[in-house]
Design brief:
- 71% of the residues lie in helices and 3% in strands.
- By secondary structure, the chain is an all-alpha fold.
- A two-stranded antiparallel sheet has the order 1-2.
- The N and C termini lie close together (12 Å).
Length: 135
Amino acid sequence: AAPLEPIALLAARLLVARVFFLSGMTKWDGLSIVGTTYDLFEWEYFADFSLPSWAFEIIVPLASAAEIVLPVMLAFGLLGRYAALGLLGMAVVIQLFVYPGAWWNPHAWWIVVLALLVIRGPGAWSLDRLIFGRA
């Protein structure tokens, strides 16, 4: 591995984790999901898909929790490839279904960085390396 690889992979993890974590924080008020989060998913994110209301009772809590848990895991490099894969899935859904006309925006960067982390792993400076002896 290149000598600067641990630094580069740590930076990649922290940069993309920050984006998702900060977004996730806007959806929570303590341990409760902010009521407007349901409206955001139903009337902005998935307005074109006519999903039944009950679907949002499942989607919103899962996505909101994932936006907090997965970035924390990624930042620490704990099950880093899986955390990156989960966020990659979210980024692809955002790109394809929520904002399909806006490809050359930050979503493209998130997808590339997350794909890199899925392929390379979280790097030497990660809990994966400390706990499992591999990154």
